[in-house]
Amino acid sequence: MFLAYISFLQEKGKSQNTIISYSNDLNSFFDQLHIKPDDFVTAADIRKWIYEMLNPINAKPLAISTINRRLNSLRSFYSWATKTNQLQQNPMSDIQDLKSADDDSEKIMWLTEEEFENLLYIIRKKPVKSRGVNPEEKYRRDRAIIYLLTYAGLRVDELSNLKLTDIDLDLKRIRIVGKGMKVRTVPISNTLLAEIQEWFVFRAEMAKQKTHVEESPYIFYSQRSPKFTVRGIQTMIEGYSLPKKKLTPHMFRHTFCKWMLKATNNDIEKVRRLAGHSNIATTSRYLKDSYSDLADAVDALPKF
């Protein structure tokens, strides 16, 4: 039954990362309840599981966002199981996501303009520790990746899968295959265009020296592979983390949405289309101030 569900996700065009995430969440649920995927489960079982995640005996409570992600994985699984008559009853029917007054602002983190400028300086100056790595090649590649994530709002898997044929420099647009194999087109700003053109010129020089680059259809490659993997990109970005702020690829997508809302005077429909959000409620989260913004506002109170 579990393998049939995984096959269903693959047929729907879910990304490998999404499938792994769903599998991990489901396995965690089955293991902690000591059950099998085709065992009968009640809403009471799930509520007990939620309570245990909020009140663990020997560990820190899980974040609300993590619990809700796990619940979403269960919701998808049991919805499929009942629709395909694998099970008669859906135990998730009455289970709602947990609510928190500020969970959205806690999990959405973006870079300020000052932090972004500081990051570019770090990328330029950070020494290369890996033996045999061309420091200029790494700098140019990493910088181009940062700009594409920030100025086009790509997800990390979208960036990893981006091919040379997906970028049209003449028409200044990027073709992106997103979640569920949905295709969107994002215009290229003049700022991003200059960065992409510089990387393409340098990449062409590298293609003359390295066979795996010459044969690669992808825009970004690694030291030995024609494709820069999702994990490779994540590790690279984490290595540039700022003081007191760990960097993740998705943080640049948050930055794109936040900056774009400011640029469009909070036109969330435009930002929704550019970011490829299926639901406008996802985009509206960026209208909220971050926790640090709220803290700055409190510090600005009159002092007596």
From TrEMBL:
Residues annotated as domain Core-binding (CB): 1-82
SUPFAM superfamilies: DNA breaking-rejoining enzymes (SSF56349)
Top-level lineage group: Bacteria
Originating organism: Cytobacillus mangrovibacter
Name this polypeptide is given: Tyrosine-type recombinase/integrase
UniProt KW Cell division keyword: yes
Residue ranges constituting the Tyr recombinase domain according to the UniProt record: 106-299
Pfam families according to UniProt: Phage_int_SAM_1 (PF02899), Phage_integrase (PF00589)
Subcellular location: Cytoplasm
Keywords: Cell cycle, Cell division, Chromosome partition, Cytoplasm, DNA integration, DNA recombination, DNA-binding
